[in-house]
Design a protein that fits this description.
Blueprint (H helix, E strand, L loop, with lengths): L1 E5 L2 E4 L4 E8 L7 E7 L6 E7 L5 E3 L7 E6 L4 E6 L8 E8 L14 E2 L3 E6 L1
Parallel strand pairs: 2-11
Antiparallel strand pairs: 1-3, 3-8, 4-5, 4-9, 5-6, 7-8, 9-10, 9-11
Length: 124
């Protein structure tokens, strides 16, 4: 599976951005798509995940209520709608897919394929 993330950019605090992750290759094997982020000087952390067939969603506490993850399975594309952005949301955002049902949706080790990352910068 190959993943191409897009949609990052510079936005003011309180604004919105929508990230997209286009999957290609063996997309029929996708079980879960997740989004992670890594801020400067910090470890990469879980943001949100969605099960590809059932559409069940999971969020980190820090983004719940502000971010929405959804997917268009027919187009093999996942999205992360980010509203009410804060300066602390500034990071490189990565999409990733799990194709072997690891079960731990919030664990980076569960995801075999990763996109290249897209920068999100929120100015305060």
């Amino acid at each position: 599976v190959q993943l191409q993330a897009s949609g990052g950019g510079l936005v003011q605090a309180g604004g919105s951005l929508r990230l997209s992750c286009a999957a290609s290759g063996r997309t029929s094997s996708i079980i879960t798509m997740g989004w992670f982020r890594q801020a400067p000087g910090k470890e990469r952390e879980f943001v949100a995940a969605i099960t590809w067939s059932g559409g069940y969603t999971y969020y980190a506490v820090s983004v719940k209520g502000r971010f929405t993850i959804f997917r268009d399975a027919a187009k093999n594309t996942g999205h992360l709608q980010m509203d009410a952005l804060k300066a602390e949301d500034t990071a490189v955002y990565y999409c990733a897919t799990d194709t072997t049902l690891h079960g731990e949706l919030m664990a980076q080790s569960s995801y075999e394929y990763w996109g290249q990352g897209t920068q999100v910068t929120v100015s305060s």
